[in-house]
């Protein structure tokens, strides 16, 4: 597909990442711009934009160009924590400043990503794909950082296509029929901002996932959510998962994005992992994220 002349797509690395210029995300997008962004996403797995001071309504509208919006399973817990803080004298009703301090009033599909000098945890410290504990994990995420720290706070992204392609043929054959458990309690059950009395999603997914648009194969296990391989005894499962976690985190498969005020990242959650670096404590970092509804992972040889 030809990219409109006004839109410039600049690759960051051979495997993953591109910056897009010539698009104003704060206004309505023309159909050719939507198609160009979508194609750049399929080609580069994560795309970045600079200087996009979107309102919440504009952020939501942007997501709706690419699919149905998704509400995070922890959104209700975050909202309850916010209400509880307000009821007990928390002033503006802010929850404990950990991974997700709150949703945005009137927009349950928007999560506020926040950390400051009081934070004991932040979102995305370990490598992961978002919410893979769901039966149908989100297709993608769109994050805008409103207030970056003075320095640091970069996000790393890794191509799970490249990670799969780098495996030997015998290893690919071993992994092809295997599935793994992705457990939401492993993540949300240990975070003080979330409701520990409820059950979070747990799902079984193929270790090698076929992308429904590109048809390419991607590794689909992460240190954050994946707990065991269903078809293997515990010892073999643990050993193979540790190998895969280390493998997908190799710098060869990565790009690194340095945030500026009102930078935006849009990533394909089906074929990437990412890690948010928390090297800026005690400085503050503030952003807002929406996600797009996805499909059930499958493997097609």
Structure, explained:
The chain is of the alpha+beta class. The protein has a single domain (8-279), classed as Double-stranded beta-helix (4-Layer Sandwich). 23% of the residues lie in helices and 28% in strands. Strands 1, 2, 3, 4, 5, 6, 7, 15 and 17 form a 9-stranded mixed beta sheet that branches. A hairpin with a 6-residue loop joins strand 11 (208-210) and strand 12. Residues 91-100 and 191-197 have low confidence and may be disordered. Belongs to the TfdA dioxygenase family.
Give a short overview.
Residues 9-290 form the TauD/TfdA-like domain. With 301 residues, this protein is of the alpha+beta class.
Which properties best describe this structure?
single chain, 301 residues, alpha+beta, Double-stranded beta-helix, three-stranded antiparallel sheet, 7 helices, 23% helix, oxidoreductase, metal-binding
- CATH fold group: Double-stranded beta-helix
The count of domains is 1
> What is the number of helical segments per DSSP (H or I, 4+ residues)?
7
Q: Order of SSEs, N→C?
A: EEHEHEHEEEEHHEHEEEEHEEEE
Largest sheet: 9 strands, mixed
If classified by CATH, what would the architecture be? 4-Layer Sandwich
Q: On the 0-100 scale, what is the average pLDDT?
A: 89
Anisotropy-based shape: globular
Alpha-carbon Rg, integer: 19 Å
Number of strands: 17
Binned, the helix content reads 10-25%
| CATH superfamily grouping | Clavaminate synthase-like
Organism: Pigmentiphaga soli
InterPro entries: AtsK-like, TauD-like_sf, TauD/TfdA-like
Keywords: Dioxygenase, Iron, Metal-binding, Oxidoreductase
Pfam family, one: TauD
